[in-house]
Amino acid sequence: MTIPAISVRGAVKRYGQLQALGGVDLRVEQGEFFGLLGPNGAGKTTLISALAGLGRLDEGAIEVMGHDVVTDYRQARRALGVVPQELVFDPFFTVREALRLQSGYFGLTRNDAWIDEILAHLDLTAKADANMRMLSGGMKRRVLVAQALVHRPPVIVLDEPTAGVDVELRQGLWGFIRKLNTDGHTIVLTTHYLEEAETLCHRIAMLKAGKVVALDTTANLLKRFATRTMRIRLAEPIGLDFLPGAIEEDSGWVEVPFERFGEVEDMLSRIRLSGGFIEEMELGAPDLEKVFVGVMQDA
Length: 299
Ligand code: ATP
Fold this sequence. Notes:
Blueprint: E1 6-15, E2 18-28, E3 33-37, H1 44-51, E4 59-64, E5 67-68, H2 73-78, E6 80-83, H3 95-105, H4 112-121, H5 137-149, E7 155-159, H6 167-182, E8 186-190, H7 194-200, E9 203-208, E10 211-217, H8 218-225, E11 228-234, E12 247-248, E13 253-258, H9 262-273, E14 278-284, H10 288-298
Parallel strand pairs: 3-8, 3-9, 6-7, 7-8
Antiparallel strand pairs: 1-2, 1-4, 4-5, 9-10, 11-13, 11-14, 12-13
The protein binds adenosine-5'-triphosphate (ATP).
């Protein structure tokens, strides 16, 4: 059996009375693009900190590429690149200096060719000699991504990498991360942009209050939890009690959930028979946001 990229077993973390992780089990295979989702305070960052060896678990164990993050810290750390959520830098270094310094932590002295390649991919070449304090927030975030990659780690964890990042960079960043994934790197992503997770991640774990409440492929999650919706706007309002689950929005649109397309035909004929005239209509596919809301309500 191949070694998992990340293995989390029975992870428990407490902050005083608060249990931030309540027994998390997760296994991320090598080469996966894995999403770790959850509302604010669910424990995502706590888990990532433990993974990076920055915070100790109270119980349980985590391995990165087969290396225990506590007993085999150096090897585990070498196998991992983390893009943290917080922007923390030494403002006096230039971008290139910061990346060289980071390379030095991993004993890499001649790393400039790779540093140049990362800078180019992240559209940072023009800023290579600028001081960190002179960069915009979005650029600083790109440098964080670059820092996580200097030692070419097989496993890359990104904690909300696109918070506060403009559309163009976001797309550029995802293009690059996707390429890294295609090249064989394992990617773990936390984000509050569910659309992003839906398009990028093959498999997703959802955390709530420190527990895994859903874990499956993105396709299965969409199939299992999300319903389709028909949205209609009628010329004149009529009573729609015969449509189960219909919700009338303030805008006058009515949203009706359904499971099979065959039901739409039936709903439309009932509306017509009740004297309703449809002016506009849309069909909505299941999306991860609906799945997320459903899972969180059930949990
Ligand atoms: P977000 O989406 O907001 O980043 P998260 O899922 O990353 O949230 P965590 O930052 O892991 O959540 O926080 C989990 C819980 O642990 C929260 O209730 C948080 O308040 C608490 N917590 C995190 N760090 C500490 C700390 N150093 N001391 C005390 N409580 C903490």
